[in-house]
C-alpha cells in the first residue's frame, strides 16, 4: 500500500482531510477511508508506457488448453508487465485489409474466427470496452505520417488474435481495447513505418501489442510431443538473434534474409504485427526475448518486448 504514497499523497491537499505531522499515519487513514475513490483516480491516470510487445498467440486452443506452455506465461503477464495501461492497441494477424483499418466501437464483441474447435471455446467471452477515442487517434497519427487512407469499422469486435491472449493477460476485461489491421499485400517496411507513426501513443498510456506467431505454417504442424523441425528452429533462431542484435532492417527484409522464410510464413499475416511493434518502440529500441516455447511441433511461441534506448 505504501508504495502508492508518492502518487496519492498530493491528493490529500485537494480533499477535506486534516493533515497531521506523521505523514504515514495520515496516508494510511486517508487510504482506508477513500480506497474506492483512490482506485478510480489511479486507473484514470495515464502513465507513459516504455515498451511495446510482440506476442505469439499460436493456436486458438491457447484459450482453454493448460498443456500449452505459453498459457502459463500469459497468465503471469502482470508479473512481466505490472504497469496498468490506459488502453490497449492490438495489431492482429487475423485482421487483414487493403488499407489500415481501426475498429471504432464502444463495446467489443467477441469474434469466433475459427472453425472445428471444442464447443466450449465458442462460449468464451471477452467483453472489453471499446476505445473509440484511441481509434480516432491512431487514424490521426497515421494520416500525419503519410498513410493517406485509414478506414473505420464501426461494427467489428475483437478477433481471437486479440481476445485469446488478452483474456489470459488481463482477465478482468476492464481496459479499453482497439484493433488495427495489417495489410498482407504490403511488406515489412510498410508495417514498421506504421508502427513508427504510432510511437507517441506510448506517452499517452497506450500499450501496443502485435499479436501473431513467430512461425506460422499450419500445414506443417505435428503431434504435440514432436520436436520442432529444422526449418522452424533455424528460422526462430535467426529471428531471435536478429532482434536481440538490433538488426531490424534484416527483419524488415526477412523474406530475403531469413532461412526458410517462406516455410516459416507461407503468408506474412502473422509476422507483420511484429514489424508494427518494433516501429512503435521508437528509434534505437532494444529487444528482449520474454518467452520461447513450442507446440504442435513447428509452432513457435517466441515473444518479444521492445524498449526505446
From TrEMBL:
GO molecular function: ferrous iron binding; oxidoreductase activity, acting on single donors with incorporation of molecular oxygen, incorporation of two atoms of oxygen; zinc ion binding
Extradiol ring-cleavage dioxygenase class III enzyme subunit B domain location: 52-306
Keywords, alphabetical: Metal-binding, Oxidoreductase, Zinc
Matches recorded under Pfam families: LigB
InterPro entries in alphabetical order: Extradiol_dOase_DODA, Xdiol_dOase_suB
Cofactors demanded by this protein: Zn(2+)
UniProt similarity note: Belongs to the DODA-type extradiol aromatic ring-opening dioxygenase family.
Protein name: Extradiol ring-cleavage dioxygenase class III enzyme subunit B domain-containing protein
Organism: Crotalaria pallida (Smooth rattlebox)
Amino acid at each position: 500500500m505504501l508504495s502508492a504514497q508518492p502518487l496519492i499523497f498530493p491528493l490529500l491537499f485537494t480533499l477535506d482531510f486534516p493533515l497531521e505531522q506523521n505523514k504515514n499515519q495520515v496516508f494510511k487513514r486517508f487510504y482506508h477511508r477513500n480506497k474506492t475513490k483512490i482506485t478510480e483516480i489511479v486507473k484514470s491516470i495515464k502513465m507513459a508506457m516504455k515498451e511495446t510487445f510482440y506476442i505469439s498467440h499460436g493456436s486458438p486452443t491457447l484459450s482453454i488448453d493448460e498443456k500449452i506452455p505459453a498459457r502459463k506465461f500469459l497468465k503471469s503477464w502482470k508479473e512481466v508487465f505490472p504497469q496498468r495501461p490506459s488502453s490497449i492497441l492490438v495489431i492482429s494477424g487475423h485482421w487483414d485489409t487493403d488499407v489500415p483499418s481501426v475498429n471504432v466501437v464502444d463495446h467489443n464483441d467477441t469474434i469466433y474466427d475459427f472453425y472445428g474447435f471444442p464447443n466450449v471455446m465458442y462460449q468464451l467471452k471477452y467483453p472489453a470496452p471499446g476505445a473509440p477515442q484511441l481509434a480516432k487517434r491512431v487514424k490521426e497519427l497515421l494520416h500525419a505520417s503519410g498513410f493517406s487512407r485509414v478506414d473505420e469499422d464501426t461494427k467489428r469486435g475483437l478477433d481471437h488474435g486479440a481476445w485469446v491472449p488478452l483474456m489470459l493477460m488481463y482477465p478482468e476485461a476492464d481496459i479499453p481495447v482497439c484493433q488495427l489491421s495489417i495489410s498482407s499485400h504490403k511488406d515489412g517496411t510498410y508495417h514498421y513505418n506504421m508502427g513508427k507513426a504510432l510511437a507517441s501513443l506510448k506517452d499517452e498510456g497506450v500499450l501496443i501489442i502485435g499479436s501473431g506467431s513467430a512461425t506460422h505454417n499450419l500445414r506443417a504442424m505435428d503431434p504435440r510431443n514432436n520436436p520442432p523441425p529444422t526449418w522452424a528452429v533455424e528460422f526462430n533462431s535467426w529471428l531471435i538473434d536478429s532482434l536481440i542484435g538490433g538488426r531490424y532492417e534484416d527483419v524488415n527484409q526477412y523474406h530475403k534474409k531469413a532461412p526458410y522464410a517462406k516455410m516459416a510464413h507461407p503468408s506474412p499475416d502473422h509476422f507483420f504485427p511484429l514489424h508494427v511493434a518494433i516501429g512503435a518502440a521508437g528509434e534505437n529500441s532494444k529487444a528482449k526475448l520474454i518467452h520461447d516455447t513450442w507446440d504442435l511441433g513447428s509452432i513457435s511461441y517466441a515473444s518479444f518486448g521492445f524498449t526505446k534506448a
